[in-house]
Each structure stands twice: as structure tokens, then as C-alpha cells.
């Protein structure tokens, strides 16, 4: 059907731009000599994960066990779960996932010695191997064991259990992804992980404990990985992009033009109370505001703000022609991940033609 025939609000992926983003990130990863392991929390759709793998990705990342279950069911066979788990329910779910999909390779991130023993007991009883990657503190002050003796001891503890395998180190500095200015962002990203790579060379390598995999970086910081010791990139937002990423700049200037904004929300004007104010049918339940307001595509004379759960308010600049009731506009989300999680379906569009759609199978799977 034509785009104009699609009911609103609707989540849109511009397929031409999305395919350019797929190729561009794989090209950058290849040029850096690193594997690309895209973070699929950005899209939560197995079909898009397969597209990333077909373009050359080595595997995928997910944030939660629930997402891993969705991706395994969708045929994805190399999955890194990047958030630590705790508690018997989660440990048993991980073991069951490994048993249910023996053809898949799952890696679970941990950061605490207390996670090792229960996983070892369950893995031994189930006669499966659990691959564990250790997250290290990389400046975000979130999860992660400190670089030093605690890291070394955790590696030794994992290696001592036949049912467990030390699968590497995760060093992700999520707080640095949106630093404005390429040079400043790159410097901060390299400084955040410099102690880790120094410790690997100085302490772990002589003991035979050096990781074969160091995973990290993201859409904003992948270029900082050059020559550091990373083996793979966890970028996710590059596939869709959003207005907040466009504002951080790249090596060419103040706008991040390395990737294109392929994710959009199609909206309809449902009210025109005054000549300089219009209301669209996409509020905070469609366009997330955690990274700021969305932006009307190609309309610098309009500004958007949330008007509540179901309403978005457009303010028209002086001299702007009034919007008509029923007029349709495209909005660029400020944060692709949280906007996507508001919808059940993603529509693929080429020009003004809707050519395909995907159910967002991992929507809401924060379990």
C-alpha cells in the first residue's frame, strides 16, 4: 500500500537508509579489523538480526534473557547477553535456554563471584557448558568488576569449573556514547578502557589469563577502538539512528552523518486549535522523551513536544502556513530503542510504498 494509506501512528523504517547503515557499519568494523556484534535491543526483531548477520556480523548482543529467548526462537545462533543476571529463576532460565537450543552459542555476562557457584551447580547437573563473560567497570559506574585483583580472581574461579568457560571481557562505556564532539568523545572512550588493556598486558597475559575476546564500544564510540585491544564492537543504534545521535558530531563536523536516520514515526494532525499550534496522534506512548523531544522531519519551522500519553503538540514558527486537519507528517525519534519498544509492528518503506512489515517480537521482553 501507499504510505498515505497506513493508519497512524505507525513506526516506519526507511529501507534504503537502513540498508546503507547496515553496509556502512560493517565496512567500518572491517576497516578496524574488528568483529561486529550488533546490539539488537535497538530493534528486537530476529529478521533484522539476520540481515545484520548476512551483512557480515559475527553474532549479536541482547540486553536480557527474554530477548535472547526471542532471538534463539527466531534462528539466531550466536548470542551475547550483556546484562548480568541474579537469582535462581534467572539461572535456571539460562540453563534451560542452553538446553533448548543446543545448536546455539550463548554467552552470559557476569560481574560477581556469587554468580559463579549457582551457575556451576546447575550447569554440571544439566551436563551443559555455560560461557561467561566478565563485565569490567569502564567509567559508567553501573555494573562491572573493578580492574585489578578482583577481575583476576573471578577469571580463576570460572576456569576452575569444568562446566563453565571464561569467554572474555565486556568493557562498555555507555555513558560516553553521546558526548558531543568527535575528538572529545574518542579521547574519553579510550581513557575509560586504558586501565583495562594495561592490566591485561601487565598482569593477565603473563599468567595465561588474558581474554581472547574483549567486547564493547557502541555507535558513538566505535572509532575509538582502533589499536586498543578490542576484538568486537557492540554497536546497535547505527541501524536506525535518532535525533540525539545526529547531534553528537563525527570526524567531519557537528552532525553525525556516518549513518542515516532510518527510523521514523508517521503521524496525523488531529487538531488545529490555533494558527500556530497543531496536535498530532503521537504522544509519549509513541515517541519516547527520555533523550529529548522528537523532531519533525524536514520541517525546521515546526517544533514538537509531548502533550501527554496520546498527544503530540507542534508549535509553528511565525510565518509558517497552518497545518491542515488530517495532514500527515514524519517524526524523527530522539531515542530509537525506547521508541521502538512502544510499538508492536515495524513497517518497511521505500519511497512512498509500504513494502513489508515485521512484528517486534522482543517488545517488552525486559525479563
From TrEMBL:
InterPro entries: Ala_racemase_N, D-amino_acid_metab_enzyme, D-ser_dehydrat-like_dom, D-ser_dehydrat-like_sf, PLP-binding_barrel. Gene3D superfamilies: Alanine racemase (3.20.20.10), D-serine dehydratase-like domain (2.40.37.20). Residues 262-350 form the D-serine dehydratase-like domain. Keywords: Lyase. It holds the Pfam family Ala_racemase_N. Belongs to the DSD1 family. This is DSD1 family PLP-dependent enzyme. It comes from Shewanella jiangmenensis.
Amino acid at each position: 500500500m501507499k504510505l498515505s494509506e497506513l493508519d497512524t501512528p505507525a513506526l516506519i523504517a526507511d529501507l534504503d537508509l537502513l540498508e546503507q547503515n547496515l553496509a556502512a557499519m560493517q565496512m567500518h568494523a572491517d576497516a578496524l579489523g574488528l568483529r561486529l556484534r550488533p546490539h539488537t535491543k535497538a530493534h528486537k526483531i530476529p529478521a533484522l538480526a539476520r540481515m545484520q548477520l548476512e551483512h557480515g556480523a559475527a553474532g549479536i548482543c541482547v540486553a536480557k534473557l527474554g530477548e535472547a529467548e526471542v532471538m534463539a526462537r527466531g534462528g539466531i545462533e550466536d548470542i551475547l547477553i550483556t546484562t548480568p543476571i541474579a537469582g535462581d529463576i534467572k539461572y535456571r532460565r539460562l540453563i534451560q535456554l542452553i538446553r533448548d537450543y543446543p545448536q546455539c552459542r550463548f554467552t552470559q555476562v557476569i560481574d560477581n563471584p556469587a554468580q559463579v557457584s549457582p551457575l556451576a551447580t546447575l550447569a554440571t547437573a544439566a551436563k551443559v557448558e555455560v560461557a561467561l563473560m566478565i563485565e569490567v567497570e569502564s567509567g559508567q559506574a553501573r555494573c562491572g568488576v573493578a580492574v585489578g585483583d578482583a577481575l583476576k580472581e573471578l577469571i580463576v574461579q570460572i576456569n576452575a569449573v569444568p562446566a563453565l568457560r571464561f569467554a572474555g571481557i565486556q568493557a562498555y562505556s555507555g555513558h560516553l556514547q553521546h558526548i558531543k564532539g568527535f575528538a572529545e568523545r574518542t579521547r574519553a572512550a579510550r581513557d575509560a578502557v586504558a586501565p583495562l588493556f594495561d592490566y591485561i598486558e601487565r598482569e593477565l597475559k603473563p599468567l595465561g589469563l588474558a581474554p581472547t575476546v574483549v567486547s564493547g564500544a557502541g555507535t558513538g564510540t566505535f572509532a575509538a577502538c582502533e589499536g586498543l585491544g578490542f576484538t568486537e564492537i557492540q554497536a546497535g543504534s547505527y541501524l536506525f539512528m535518532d535525533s540525539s545521535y545526529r547531534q553528537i558530531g563525527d570526524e567531519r563536523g557537528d552532525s553525525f552523518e556516518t549513518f542515516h536516520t532510518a527510523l521514523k514515526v508517521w503521524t496525523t494532525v488531529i487538531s488545529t486549535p490555533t494558527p500556530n499550534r497543531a496536535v498530532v496522534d503521537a504522544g509519549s506512548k509513541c515517541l519516547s522523551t527520555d533523550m529529548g523531544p522528537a523532531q519533525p522531519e524536514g520541517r525546521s519551522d515546526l517544533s514538537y513536544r509531548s502533550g501527554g500519553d496520546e498527544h503530540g503538540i507542534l508549535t509553528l514558527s511565525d510565518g509558517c502556513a497552518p497545518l491542515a486537519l488530517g495532514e500527515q507528517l514524519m517524526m524523527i525519534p530522539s531515542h530509537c530503542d525506547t521508541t521502538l519498544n512502544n510499538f508492536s509492528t515495524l513497517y518497511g518503506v521505500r519511497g512512498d510504498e509500504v513494502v513489508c512489515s515485521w512484528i517486534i517480537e522482543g517488545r517488552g521482553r525486559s525479563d
